[in-house]
Specification:
single chain, ten-stranded mixed β-sheet, 17% helix, 30% strand
Length: 210
């Protein structure tokens, strides 16, 4: 089997040629990618449903807009929490301080000092255990986004799509997770690239009108 170079933590940005309506102008954060397949969430698909309507305890920690995002077409009845924990909080929230919180024993503490209930994916970005008491993380989370469903690819499927030119692969930034203006995220991510990709940001929504 060909070894797969992990793209975990990077962004998949839909190219204008991608015809799947589920991913039109999508920006996908890859949460897992290896030879067994890939899993990610679409960062720029807000729904009308407020976080407080489905996960009220987490509503106060959710960034603006405080709605649930559609992470992809798979398992829309499931929820994923993705949050950014600033570096200073990760350094100071070690097992000893986390253990002082009520209920902290319900969750493992990271030997690296990561907050209880938060599992690092890449850099400052990680997955939140939505079964954990929100108060455990209230003072360390920089931002939180709740996703309904996710985007998934089987073994070799994403690699095939990449070879077909369906996606640009670029580095993520912590601010991408909690962008307050998700409708502009596709253009914003492309515009910051120091390559010809910056020009793609000017691609019209409807090429026939160009």
């Amino acid at each position: 089997m060909t070894e797969v170079s992990s793209l975990t933590g990077r962004l998949l940005v839909a190219t204008p040629a991608l015809s799947d309506p589920n991913f039109d102008r999508a920006v996908v954060l890859l949460l897992d990618h290896d030879e067994d397949g890939s899993l990610g969430v679409v960062l720029n698909r807000p729904t009308p449903v407020g976080v407080g309507d489905v996960l009220e305890p987490w509503a106060a920690l959710a960034g603006e807009p405080g709605v649930v995002f559609q992470g992809g077409p798979v398992s829309l009845d499931s929820a994923l929490g993705v949050a950014v924990v600033p570096g200073e909080a990760r350094e100071h929230e070690g097992p000893s301080s986390a253990g002082e919180s009520a209920g902290a024993g319900l969750l493992p503490s990271s030997a690296m000092g990561d907050p209880v209930g938060w599992r690092r994916v890449h850099g400052a970005i990680g997955l939140v255990d939505l079964e954990a008491p929100p108060e455990l993380m209230a003072r360390v989370l920089g931002s939180l986004r709740i996703f309904a469903g996710y985007s998934g690819w089987g073994p070799g499927q994403l690699e095939k799509e990449l070879a077909e030119g369906a996606w640009y692969v670029v580095e993520s930034e912590p601010g991408d997770v909690s962008s307050p203006d998700p409708a502009r995220l596709w253009r914003a991510v492309l515009r910051r690239q120091r390559s010809e990709l910056a020009m793609v940001a000017t691609y019209p929504d409807d090429p026939s009108l160009n």
